[in-house]
Design goal:
This protein is an alpha+beta fold. It folds into two domains: 7-129, Phosphorylase Kinase, domain 1; 134-300, Aminoglycoside 3'-phosphotransferase, Chain: A, domain 2. The chain is built from ten helices and ten strands. It has helices spanning 7-11, 28-38, 40-60, 94-106, 144-159, 172-175, 187-202, 249-260, 264-284, 290-300, and strands at residues 62-67, 75-81, 84-90, 115-119, 124-128, 132-135, 208-210, 219-222, 225-228, 234-236. The strands form three sheets. The protein has a five-stranded antiparallel beta sheet with strand order 1-2-3-5-4, sandwiched between helices. 37% of the residues are buried.
Protein backbone atom coordinates (compact mmCIF):
# COMPACT_ATOMS: atom_id res chain seq x y z
CA UNK A 1 0.00 0.00 0.00
CA UNK A 2 1.38 3.40 -0.97
CA UNK A 3 1.04 6.08 1.68
CA UNK A 4 1.37 9.76 0.78
CA UNK A 5 4.67 11.44 1.41
CA UNK A 6 4.52 13.87 4.28
CA UNK A 7 5.12 16.77 1.84
CA UNK A 8 1.75 16.04 0.25
CA UNK A 9 0.04 17.82 3.12
CA UNK A 10 2.24 20.91 2.99
CA UNK A 11 1.57 21.25 -0.75
CA UNK A 12 -2.13 21.71 -0.03
CA UNK A 13 -1.18 25.20 1.04
CA UNK A 14 -2.32 27.52 3.74
CA UNK A 15 -6.06 27.99 3.61
CA UNK A 16 -8.70 29.85 5.52
CA UNK A 17 -10.93 27.31 7.15
CA UNK A 18 -14.24 28.45 5.77
CA UNK A 19 -17.11 27.23 7.96
CA UNK A 20 -19.40 26.73 4.95
CA UNK A 21 -16.95 24.23 3.48
CA UNK A 22 -16.34 22.21 6.63
CA UNK A 23 -19.30 21.20 8.71
CA UNK A 24 -17.49 19.09 11.31
CA UNK A 25 -14.34 17.24 12.18
CA UNK A 26 -14.22 13.43 11.90
CA UNK A 27 -16.02 11.37 14.49
CA UNK A 28 -14.01 9.67 17.22
CA UNK A 29 -14.37 6.19 15.71
CA UNK A 30 -12.95 7.43 12.42
CA UNK A 31 -10.05 9.13 14.18
CA UNK A 32 -9.30 5.96 16.10
CA UNK A 33 -9.23 3.81 12.96
CA UNK A 34 -7.02 6.31 11.16
CA UNK A 35 -4.53 6.43 14.02
CA UNK A 36 -4.54 2.64 14.47
CA UNK A 37 -3.60 2.11 10.83
CA UNK A 38 -1.41 5.12 10.02
CA UNK A 39 0.00 6.32 13.35
CA UNK A 40 1.70 9.74 13.24
CA UNK A 41 1.01 10.09 9.50
CA UNK A 42 -2.68 9.63 10.26
CA UNK A 43 -2.56 12.35 12.92
CA UNK A 44 -0.96 14.80 10.49
CA UNK A 45 -3.57 13.95 7.86
CA UNK A 46 -6.37 14.52 10.38
CA UNK A 47 -4.87 17.87 11.36
CA UNK A 48 -4.80 18.92 7.69
CA UNK A 49 -8.22 17.49 6.83
CA UNK A 50 -10.19 20.78 7.10
CA UNK A 51 -7.71 22.45 4.75
CA UNK A 52 -7.89 19.51 2.32
CA UNK A 53 -11.70 19.68 2.24
CA UNK A 54 -11.62 23.41 1.53
CA UNK A 55 -9.04 22.93 -1.24
CA UNK A 56 -11.18 20.27 -2.91
CA UNK A 57 -14.28 22.45 -2.48
CA UNK A 58 -12.62 25.21 -4.51
CA UNK A 59 -11.13 22.76 -7.01
CA UNK A 60 -14.43 21.07 -7.86
CA UNK A 61 -16.92 23.83 -7.05
CA UNK A 62 -18.49 22.12 -4.06
CA UNK A 63 -20.60 23.61 -1.31
CA UNK A 64 -22.96 22.68 1.52
CA UNK A 65 -20.68 19.81 2.54
CA UNK A 66 -21.66 17.71 5.55
CA UNK A 67 -19.91 14.55 6.83
CA UNK A 68 -21.93 11.36 6.93
CA UNK A 69 -22.88 10.04 10.35
CA UNK A 70 -20.49 7.09 10.51
CA UNK A 71 -17.49 7.13 8.17
CA UNK A 72 -15.41 3.96 8.06
CA UNK A 73 -11.89 3.98 6.59
CA UNK A 74 -12.39 7.15 4.54
CA UNK A 75 -13.87 10.53 5.36
CA UNK A 76 -17.10 10.97 3.39
CA UNK A 77 -19.20 14.10 2.92
CA UNK A 78 -22.38 14.85 1.03
CA UNK A 79 -22.98 18.16 -0.72
CA UNK A 80 -23.66 19.88 -4.02
CA UNK A 81 -21.77 20.63 -7.20
CA UNK A 82 -23.96 23.24 -8.83
CA UNK A 83 -27.41 21.72 -8.43
CA UNK A 84 -26.14 18.13 -8.53
CA UNK A 85 -26.06 16.12 -5.27
CA UNK A 86 -22.59 14.66 -4.78
CA UNK A 87 -20.49 12.60 -2.38
CA UNK A 88 -16.89 13.58 -1.64
CA UNK A 89 -14.65 10.78 -0.38
CA UNK A 90 -11.12 11.38 0.93
CA UNK A 91 -8.68 9.14 2.73
CA UNK A 92 -5.15 7.96 3.30
CA UNK A 93 -5.67 4.62 1.53
CA UNK A 94 -4.31 6.12 -1.70
CA UNK A 95 -3.87 2.80 -3.52
CA UNK A 96 -7.38 1.66 -2.66
CA UNK A 97 -8.95 4.96 -3.68
CA UNK A 98 -7.07 4.89 -6.98
CA UNK A 99 -8.31 1.35 -7.64
CA UNK A 100 -11.83 2.33 -6.64
CA UNK A 101 -11.81 5.15 -9.19
CA UNK A 102 -10.47 2.81 -11.89
CA UNK A 103 -13.06 0.16 -11.04
CA UNK A 104 -15.90 2.70 -11.20
CA UNK A 105 -14.78 3.80 -14.67
CA UNK A 106 -14.90 0.16 -15.81
CA UNK A 107 -18.24 -0.46 -14.10
CA UNK A 108 -19.88 2.54 -15.82
CA UNK A 109 -23.18 1.30 -17.23
CA UNK A 110 -22.96 -1.97 -15.32
CA UNK A 111 -24.69 -1.09 -12.06
CA UNK A 112 -22.22 1.07 -10.12
CA UNK A 113 -22.29 4.66 -8.90
CA UNK A 114 -21.07 7.29 -11.37
CA UNK A 115 -17.67 8.82 -10.69
CA UNK A 116 -17.52 12.54 -11.53
CA UNK A 117 -13.84 13.27 -10.78
CA UNK A 118 -10.85 12.02 -8.84
CA UNK A 119 -7.54 13.43 -7.64
CA UNK A 120 -5.14 10.57 -6.81
CA UNK A 121 -2.49 12.96 -5.44
CA UNK A 122 -4.93 14.16 -2.77
CA UNK A 123 -6.62 10.82 -2.16
CA UNK A 124 -10.00 12.18 -3.26
CA UNK A 125 -12.94 10.88 -5.28
CA UNK A 126 -16.05 12.83 -6.30
CA UNK A 127 -19.16 10.71 -6.85
CA UNK A 128 -22.76 11.16 -7.85
CA UNK A 129 -24.96 10.91 -4.79
CA UNK A 130 -27.50 8.10 -4.79
CA UNK A 131 -31.02 9.40 -4.22
CA UNK A 132 -32.87 8.43 -2.08
CA UNK A 133 -29.84 6.35 -1.08
CA UNK A 134 -31.74 3.68 0.86
CA UNK A 135 -29.48 0.68 1.51
CA UNK A 136 -30.41 -2.87 0.60
CA UNK A 137 -30.10 -3.60 4.31
CA UNK A 138 -33.52 -1.95 4.67
CA UNK A 139 -35.15 -5.06 3.19
CA UNK A 140 -34.04 -7.19 6.16
CA UNK A 141 -35.34 -9.24 7.84
CA UNK A 142 -38.70 -9.28 6.06
CA UNK A 143 -37.40 -9.69 2.50
CA UNK A 144 -34.19 -11.67 2.86
CA UNK A 145 -34.88 -13.95 -0.11
CA UNK A 146 -35.66 -10.99 -2.38
CA UNK A 147 -32.49 -9.24 -1.22
CA UNK A 148 -30.32 -12.23 -2.12
CA UNK A 149 -31.84 -12.34 -5.60
CA UNK A 150 -31.28 -8.60 -6.07
CA UNK A 151 -27.65 -8.69 -4.99
CA UNK A 152 -26.92 -11.75 -7.14
CA UNK A 153 -28.37 -9.99 -10.18
CA UNK A 154 -26.30 -6.87 -9.44
CA UNK A 155 -23.15 -8.91 -8.87
CA UNK A 156 -23.55 -10.72 -12.20
CA UNK A 157 -24.10 -7.39 -13.95
CA UNK A 158 -20.91 -5.93 -12.44
CA UNK A 159 -18.97 -9.01 -13.52
CA UNK A 160 -20.05 -8.48 -17.13
CA UNK A 161 -18.02 -5.25 -17.36
CA UNK A 162 -15.11 -5.63 -19.81
CA UNK A 163 -11.73 -5.16 -18.12
CA UNK A 164 -9.86 -2.56 -20.15
CA UNK A 165 -6.85 -2.15 -17.82
CA UNK A 166 -6.18 -5.42 -15.94
CA UNK A 167 -2.74 -4.33 -14.72
CA UNK A 168 -4.42 -1.68 -12.56
CA UNK A 169 -5.88 -4.27 -10.21
CA UNK A 170 -4.38 -6.92 -7.92
CA UNK A 171 -5.26 -10.53 -8.54
CA UNK A 172 -7.17 -12.45 -5.91
CA UNK A 173 -4.04 -14.52 -5.37
CA UNK A 174 -2.12 -11.34 -4.49
CA UNK A 175 -5.01 -10.03 -2.39
CA UNK A 176 -4.98 -13.16 -0.23
CA UNK A 177 -1.20 -13.55 0.03
CA UNK A 178 -1.20 -12.36 3.65
CA UNK A 179 -2.81 -15.67 4.66
CA UNK A 180 0.57 -17.33 4.12
CA UNK A 181 2.04 -15.32 6.98
CA UNK A 182 1.51 -16.38 10.57
CA UNK A 183 -0.54 -13.95 12.55
CA UNK A 184 -3.09 -13.40 15.28
CA UNK A 185 -5.85 -15.53 13.69
CA UNK A 186 -6.35 -18.93 15.36
CA UNK A 187 -4.05 -21.55 13.76
CA UNK A 188 -6.86 -23.98 12.86
CA UNK A 189 -8.62 -21.21 10.91
CA UNK A 190 -5.39 -20.25 9.14
CA UNK A 191 -4.55 -23.85 8.27
CA UNK A 192 -7.97 -24.49 6.78
CA UNK A 193 -7.97 -21.17 4.88
CA UNK A 194 -4.55 -21.94 3.36
CA UNK A 195 -5.62 -25.43 2.33
CA UNK A 196 -8.88 -24.22 0.77
CA UNK A 197 -7.16 -21.35 -1.00
CA UNK A 198 -4.72 -23.76 -2.62
CA UNK A 199 -7.57 -26.04 -3.73
CA UNK A 200 -9.62 -23.17 -5.14
CA UNK A 201 -6.75 -21.70 -7.14
CA UNK A 202 -6.00 -25.08 -8.72
CA UNK A 203 -9.23 -24.84 -10.71
CA UNK A 204 -8.95 -22.38 -13.57
CA UNK A 205 -11.83 -19.89 -13.71
CA UNK A 206 -12.10 -16.91 -16.05
CA UNK A 207 -11.36 -13.90 -13.83
CA UNK A 208 -13.73 -10.95 -13.59
CA UNK A 209 -13.41 -7.56 -11.92
CA UNK A 210 -14.64 -8.29 -8.41
CA UNK A 211 -16.32 -5.62 -6.33
CA UNK A 212 -14.62 -7.01 -3.24
CA UNK A 213 -16.94 -5.54 -0.60
CA UNK A 214 -20.48 -6.11 -1.85
CA UNK A 215 -22.32 -6.02 1.47
CA UNK A 216 -25.86 -4.68 1.79
CA UNK A 217 -24.83 -1.21 2.95
CA UNK A 218 -22.75 -0.83 -0.22
CA UNK A 219 -25.86 -1.30 -2.37
CA UNK A 220 -28.03 1.82 -2.55
CA UNK A 221 -31.29 2.71 -4.22
CA UNK A 222 -30.93 5.37 -6.93
CA UNK A 223 -34.33 6.33 -8.33
CA UNK A 224 -35.70 2.80 -8.92
CA UNK A 225 -32.38 0.99 -9.46
CA UNK A 226 -30.11 -0.72 -6.94
CA UNK A 227 -26.53 0.49 -7.44
CA UNK A 228 -23.17 -0.62 -6.00
CA UNK A 229 -20.73 1.77 -4.30
CA UNK A 230 -17.21 1.43 -2.81
CA UNK A 231 -15.65 -1.29 -5.02
CA UNK A 232 -12.21 -2.62 -4.08
CA UNK A 233 -11.29 -3.73 -7.60
CA UNK A 234 -9.75 -7.23 -7.60
CA UNK A 235 -9.34 -9.74 -10.44
CA UNK A 236 -10.58 -13.22 -9.62
CA UNK A 237 -13.19 -15.96 -9.41
CA UNK A 238 -16.74 -14.52 -9.50
CA UNK A 239 -17.74 -16.63 -6.49
CA UNK A 240 -15.17 -14.81 -4.34
CA UNK A 241 -17.50 -11.78 -4.37
CA UNK A 242 -20.28 -13.50 -2.44
CA UNK A 243 -19.11 -13.54 1.17
CA UNK A 244 -19.90 -9.94 2.22
CA UNK A 245 -23.66 -10.31 1.74
CA UNK A 246 -24.09 -13.60 3.62
CA UNK A 247 -25.42 -13.48 7.16
CA UNK A 248 -26.47 -17.05 7.94
CA UNK A 249 -24.20 -19.26 5.82
CA UNK A 250 -25.86 -22.60 6.58
CA UNK A 251 -29.18 -21.24 5.29
CA UNK A 252 -28.11 -18.74 2.64
CA UNK A 253 -25.28 -20.59 0.85
CA UNK A 254 -27.66 -23.29 -0.49
CA UNK A 255 -30.09 -20.54 -1.54
CA UNK A 256 -27.34 -18.63 -3.34
CA UNK A 257 -26.07 -21.79 -5.02
CA UNK A 258 -29.55 -22.33 -6.45
CA UNK A 259 -29.97 -18.71 -7.55
CA UNK A 260 -26.55 -18.67 -9.25
CA UNK A 261 -26.58 -22.32 -10.38
CA UNK A 262 -23.23 -22.86 -8.68
CA UNK A 263 -21.61 -25.44 -6.40
CA UNK A 264 -22.49 -24.63 -2.75
CA UNK A 265 -19.22 -26.22 -1.58
CA UNK A 266 -17.21 -23.82 -3.68
CA UNK A 267 -19.21 -20.84 -2.38
CA UNK A 268 -18.66 -22.03 1.20
CA UNK A 269 -14.93 -22.47 0.63
CA UNK A 270 -14.47 -19.02 -0.90
CA UNK A 271 -16.40 -17.54 2.02
CA UNK A 272 -14.11 -19.25 4.52
CA UNK A 273 -10.95 -18.05 2.79
CA UNK A 274 -12.17 -14.47 2.36
CA UNK A 275 -13.53 -14.12 5.90
CA UNK A 276 -10.30 -15.57 7.33
CA UNK A 277 -8.29 -13.00 5.40
CA UNK A 278 -10.52 -10.13 6.54
CA UNK A 279 -10.47 -11.27 10.18
CA UNK A 280 -6.68 -11.61 10.15
CA UNK A 281 -6.27 -8.08 8.78
CA UNK A 282 -8.65 -6.63 11.36
CA UNK A 283 -6.82 -8.35 14.19
CA UNK A 284 -3.46 -7.07 12.93
CA UNK A 285 -4.75 -3.49 12.76
CA UNK A 286 -6.52 -3.57 16.15
CA UNK A 287 -9.99 -3.24 14.63
CA UNK A 288 -13.21 -4.83 15.86
CA UNK A 289 -13.22 -8.45 14.68
CA UNK A 290 -16.16 -9.84 16.64
CA UNK A 291 -18.62 -10.11 13.75
CA UNK A 292 -16.03 -11.62 11.41
CA UNK A 293 -14.98 -14.22 13.97
CA UNK A 294 -18.61 -15.06 14.67
CA UNK A 295 -19.19 -15.52 10.93
CA UNK A 296 -16.02 -17.62 10.65
CA UNK A 297 -17.27 -19.85 13.47
CA UNK A 298 -20.55 -20.44 11.64
CA UNK A 299 -18.65 -21.38 8.48
CA UNK A 300 -16.33 -23.65 10.47
CA UNK A 301 -19.35 -25.63 11.67
CA UNK A 302 -20.23 -26.45 8.04
CA UNK A 303 -17.13 -28.65 7.62
Amino acid sequence: MNFPHIDTFSRIGHCIRAPQAIAAYPMESFKKKTLNIFGSLGQEWLDNLPCLIQTLSHQWGLFDLHPIDAPSFNYVLTGLQGSTPIVLKVGLHYDELTREAAALHIYKGFGAVEIRANDPAKGAILLERMMPGTTLKSLFPDHTSDSLKLVCALMKRLHEAPISSPNTFPTLHQWLSDLEKDGPLAPHYLDRARYLKKQLFESHVQPVLLHGDLHFENILLHDTEWVAIDPKGILGDPLADIWPFIREPAIEIPQLAEILNQDPTRIRDWCFVQVSSAAKWNLETNLDTRQLLKFLGKLDQMY
